[in-house]
Amino acid sequence: LTALCIRSLPGLPEVRAGDDLAALIVAALEAEEALQNGEIVAIAHKVVSKAEGAVVRLADVQPSAQARTLAAEQDRDPRAVQVVLDQSQELVRAANGVLICRTHHGFVCANAGVDASNTAADAAARAAQDTLIVLPADPDASARRIRARLRELTGASPAVLISDSFGRAWRHGQCDVAIGCAGLAPLEDWRGRTDGAGLKLRATWLAVADAIAASADLARAKDSHEPVVIVSGLERFVTAEEGPGAGALLRPAAEDLFR
Amino acid sequence: LTALCIRSLPGLPEVRAGDDLAALIVAALEAEEALQNGEIVAIAHKVVSKAEGAVVRLADVQPSAQARTLAAEQDRDPRAVQVVLDQSQELVRAANGVLICRTHHGFVCANAGVDASNTAADAAARAAQDTLIVLPADPDASARRIRARLRELTGASPAVLISDSFGRAWRHGQCDVAIGCAGLAPLEDWRGRTDGAGLKLRATWLAVADAIAASADLARAKDSHEPVVIVSGLERFVTAEEGPGAGALLRPAAEDLFR
Questions:
Q1: In this structure, are residues B256 and A169 in contact, taking their beta carbons and an 8 Å threshold?
Q2: Which of left, alpha, beta for B21 (phi over 0: left; psi -120 to 50: alpha)?
Q3: Residue to substitute from B92, B170, B199, B208, interface A, most A β-carbons within 10 A
Q4: Chain A residues closer than 8 Å to B221 by CB
């Protein structure tokens, strides 16, 4: 009997630039139960970005001519558009006030993952809504760092997964996907293997890290401050080595039949 | 503390056309624990298709000229290509031996969801690999029927979700998505609501049913015959009414910025 258990972690304080996120997680866990080997610590990227200071104040941004043109067309703040462009290697599409971008990491998502909500630590900045939060510069490296620190603090060696909510082609709504991971096999490859009856399986290459990200997001209500979720029961995907990271999930355009 | 528990259901026999799938599930559950209100019964579509007889014998298929041309270009069996075309309202792309189709339901997926693996009940047909399994004709209706029958047999009123593994744009690997559901809110709409700090949330429209489908798939190993998974802890998405079904997840092309 395979059983999976996913629990959100209450008690994490508001995260600020320079905070030791792993230490905050361990402190919050202490009221609960200790981290186990083989568990997965799934973290909504915002707190990782905050801890790393991946935040931009609109007041500091000088919009380019391109940003001003796009902002006028899409009814957006030119400074916010500039922040989105700064995070992007390619503007895939601009419509309905949304910029679909390919980020410098290679992720294709709305507004290059730049987010305005729930960012500023102090009430004054929040009231002004003048701070944007961007994706971590290298989310796989962030996951490795957090994992190393969790190991240092607890002795346990969990996997770490960092997620964001992305829209999808063809389907309504967003699902969380993995933007960084460490100690986790992001893809499970059954291509060419046979099923229980000895038949060759159809293309079966499971995006395990994305499925875990989506699962973890179900355990947190969007309005509760619970960015951290602990997943148990997926030991088979947790690895001693760091692994290829979530970068392995990026599909080169030439191989992409779905867009 | 939000906690989600997902367990796969062992002991389901090989499903055959005409089988009462709900009754098989209830029988398999008896060795475990009874179904509870608010639980979600997540079913890989193959057993639903099998029970409904949504199966095509290649020997019965007459390929059209279009199917023969496509098959030659993509190095496929012309009869299998014909089955895929029969399931499709639109051929989106053909490359690398894969046909990306929009099915009559509106799903965009590889080979219109037609699957060769692990279908035939008898060894002779399996050896010949001459049987293809297609998606249920109306998976939301299938989910409603299974739900009604589960309620009749157990008195409990769980949600029912039917899933398939779909490839995605931009990202490697497949994730399970919902192709049918009943008694479940498929999307959770936070657009326009505010977060804990009173700030308006960024576009936040969660594809709950797809996240549940992806979670359920993590609880089954691909080579174990465990198509049925029980999800507990998501009572907030389980509804008394049937709900809009997974059809609500289909994004009209005109609104689709991601492809």
A1: yes
A2: alpha
A3: B170
A4: 2
Nearest to A176 by CA among A185, A187, A164, A159: A164
Determine whether the interchain pair A224/B196 forms a contact, defined as Cβ–Cβ distance below 8 Å. Answer: yes
The rounded distance, in Å, linking the Cα atoms of B117 and B109 is: 17
Choose from A109, A232, A257 for mutation: most chain B CBs within 10 A.
A257
Instruction: Say which DSSP state A184 is in.
Output: B
CA atoms within 13 A on the CB side of A208: 27
Residues contacting B158, CB < 8 A, separation 6+: B35, B36, B37, B38, B39, B40, B41, B147, B150, B183, B238
- Are the C-beta atoms of residues B236 and B134 closer than 8 Å to each other? no
Show the tokens assigned to B84. Answer: 């895929």
List the beta bridge partners of residue A184: A238
DSSP string, B65-94: HHHHHHHHHHT--HHHHHHHHHTEEEEEEE
CA distance B240 to B244: 12
* pLDDT values of chain A reduced to their tens digit, one per residue, 259 residues: 568 999 999 889 999 999 999 999 999 998 667 899 999 999 999 999 999 999 999 999 999 999 999 999 998 999 999 999 999 999 999 988 889 999 999 999 999 999 875 544 555 555 556 889 999 999 999 999 999 999 999 999 999 999 999 999 999 999 999 999 999 999 998 877 655 545 455 558 899 999 999 999 999 876 667 899 999 999 999 999 999 999 999 998 877 777 7
pTM: 0.93
Residues of A in contact with B173 (CB under 8 A): 186-187, 205-208, 210, 249
Contact between A169 and B258 under an 8 Å Cβ cutoff? The reply is: yes
Find the helix packing angle between B21-30 and B45-52, rounded to 10°.
Answer: 130
* Beta carbons of A116 and B199 less than 8 Å apart: yes
Cα–Cα–Cα angle for A221, A170, B55, rounded to 5 degrees: 105
Q: Testing the interface with A: which of B1, B92, B115, B168 to mutate, by most A Cβ within 10 A?
A: B168
Using the beta-carbon criterion (under 8 Å), do A215 and B210 form an inter-chain contact?
no
Cβ-based contacts of A108 with chain B (< 8 Å): 169-170, 258
Do the bridges between strand B3-8 and strand A3-8 make them parallel or antiparallel, or are there none, so unpaired? antiparallel
Q: Which residues of chain B have pLDDT under 50?
A: 119-120, 197, 199
pLDDT at B2: 60
Chain A CB contacts of B172 under 8 Å are 187, 205, 207, 248-251
| Residue at B222: amino acid letter | K
Cβ proximity of A19 and B22 under 8 Å: no
